[in-house]
Design a protein that fits this description.
Length: about 190
């Protein structure tokens, strides 16, 4: 399993896989993995040739009253779990790699889909999610991207973005037996 921390390395590796005719499955996560994430990795393994898992606690999807620093992290355990699942590559960038100083480009999905529930109670949350997911799609170039059905509103927002911005990929929303670990309430 290869672990990449920079956008360039990850993007080059994915381009290489595509040039070899392989299909890429991406499982975007914020780490601190549990069985729900692993079931998405297994689904990606069933449906695509190579599986990339991103581990990135995305600062811009946290609100001012949500404690980003307290979000649980355990990269070495995550890597151990992904090694066992035979993931092919992990993308684990630092925040400054994804959002270098002066970063100013965002994706905002408007309309009904973001007006209610999390979209209403966590202003800016889906703008942060859509932005990071769009970046991950451009970096990892997946044929299919896998998200837990349990975050139903997030899946709808991402599907709308993919449709309206013409990303050439398929969203798979899979049933993930999700058990939140303590302190994981912002996932
Ligand atoms: O569902 C999550 O863990 C996150 O919202 C995601 C999709 C990885 C984007 O940071």
């Amino acid at each position: 399993m290869q672990v990449f921390n920079t956008v360039n390395e990850m993007q080059n590796w994915c381009t290489d896989q595509k040039n070899q005719g392989k299909t890429i499955g991406l499982v975007p996560t914020m780490g601190y993995l549990h069985e729900g994430h692993l079931s998405l990795v297994r689904e990606a393994r069933r449906q695509t040739d190579v599986v990339v898992v991103s581990i990135f606690v995305n600062p811009i999807q946290f609100g001012a009253n949500e404690d980003l620093d307290k979000y649980p992290r355990d990269l070495s355990k995550d890597l151990e779990m992904l090694e066992k699942e035979k993931a092919d590559a992990v993308f684990a960038p630092a925040a400054a790699e994804m959002y270098p100083p002066g970063y100013n480009s965002f994706v905002e999905i408007e309309g009904q889909v973001t007006a209610k529930l999390c979209g209403a109670s966590r202003p800016g949350h889906f703008k942060g999610v859509a932005t990071v997911v769009a970046k991950l799609f451009n970096i990892c170039q997946p044929n299919r991207a896998f998200f837990g059905q349990k975050d139903a509103q997030q899946v709808l927002v991402i599907e709308k973005m993919v449709r309206e911005l013409n990303f050439p990929l398929q969203i798979v929303s899979a049933h993930s037996k999700r058990k939140r670990r303590p302190g994981h309430e912002f996932a």
